Amino acid sequence: MTGLSRRRRLAAVAVTAICVVAGAGCSSSAGGPSDGGAHLVWDPYPQFADDSEWVALLKKCGTSAGVTVERTGYDTTDLTNKALLAAQQGNSPDVLIVDNPVISTLAEAGALTTTDENELDVSSMEANLLGAGQRDGKTYGVPIGANTLALYYNKDLLTRAGVDPASIRDWTSLNAALTRVKASGKKGITFSAIGTEEGSFQFLPWFWGSGAQLTALDSPQAVSALTLWTDWLRQGHAPNSVINNTQTTSWQEFATGDYAFAENGTWQLANAEKLGFPYGTIAIPASAGGPAPAPTGGEFVSIPVQDKTGRYAASQKLVACLTNADNLLTTDTTLSYVAPVAAVQERQAASDPKLKVWVEAVRAAKGRTGDNLGTKYPKISEPLWTAVQASLSGSKSPREALTAAQAAATAR
């Protein structure tokens, strides 16, 4: 791709994908790398101050690469906006760390180098996690870690209801557990079904766990997944509040001690330790048994396209340092992530047995933009969460809601 055609492509993606969809400001310049030795690193971790372990690692890796690191942390939406505009203006940072679904957007815009071009080694990365950074057979970055979803459970409530969590292996056994919990006088399960990406994110394990595919939202398998959720509300196993619940408010419901189960992510592990009752975790079960594929969260470390290609060598060394096994262990522990490398996952589970379930869940997980969906995913996700809302609210049956969703996704 020539520089001119790439800039035109970036201009179109920046305006349509960011200014219109995200509603972010589009007038300011992002400010790219200088001509000196400093390497700019942009990340989505504004919560980490300059004296944090994360920034210390960045500086250490910069030193090993022979450069001084200048790091800026942005929130995720702002970072995507700035990354696209910086690429359009030809002043991208040297290293960019972004949420994994954003990789497809940047790759389509021609803003990122491929691992073939930048010679980053991804051979040790788990294929299901690497898939979120792939498009048309090319890989555009290295996963730094992953989070995903599982079921937290209240040990006291399950004991009172006579439910052994180890017996929950499929939808039938989960439904049986919910029935017993309700019979004991307590509430079954809470989750987030809000009409945003959070709602789609939480529905996907059940959708994929039914055997459904995102290219066929109205399949019989998809209908069975939405019927499962809808029946939970009708039978009183889940509260009507799930329609408006974010993952945070859903967690707050679970923290009251009134619910036996909550679907939530690794990011709640620290809060789980503060609960006023003993808890455990199990993988979200697939319809026919085994762990369901849950969507992955987490970031990729990428090397943006630079006009001054001589900067790539130091960038490659910097990224290789950030993603080597020892540094991944430190970083993923700090971020409450599961590592993208099997050997490091084993070390995490060995050091903290509570992570065993999360390692299992991540190994079964898949990227939302995987299966070469790329930038098609947002055009599918919104009709999907709209269908979930329609079915749970009772305005449409699961089949009617998903038929309308497939028609909307096809029309986009």
Features:
alpha/beta, globular, four-stranded mixed β-sheet, 412 residues, 47% helix
Strand-helix topology:
Layout: H1 3-20, E1 38-43, H2 53-65, E2 68-73, H3 76-89, E3 95-99, H4 102-108, H5 115-118, H6 127-130, E4 134-135, E5 138-139, E6 142-143, E7 149-154, H7 155-161, H8 171-183, E8 187-190, H9 197-209, H10 220-234, H11 247-255, E9 259-265, H12 269-272, E10 279-282, E11 299-302, H13 312-322, H14 325-335, H15 342-351, H16 356-364, H17 377-393, H18 398-411
Parallel strand pairs: 1-2, 1-3, 8-9
Antiparallel strand pairs: 3-11, 4-5, 6-11, 7-9, 7-10
Helix pairs in contact: 1-3, 2-13, 7-8, 9-10, 9-17, 14-15, 17-18
Shape: globular
Q: What's the total number of strands?
A: 11
Radius of gyration: 22 Å
Counting DSSP H or I runs of 4 or more residues, the number of helices is: 18
Structural class designation: alpha/beta
Overall average residue pLDDT: 90
Strand and helix order: HEHEHEHHHEEEEHHEHHHEHEEHHHHHH
Largest sheet data: 5 strands, mixed
Fraction of residues in β-strands: 5-15%
Helix content: 40-55%
Terminal-residue CA separation:
27 Å
Strand order of the largest sheet: 2-1-3-11-6
Uncertain stretches of 5 or more adjacent residues: 11-31
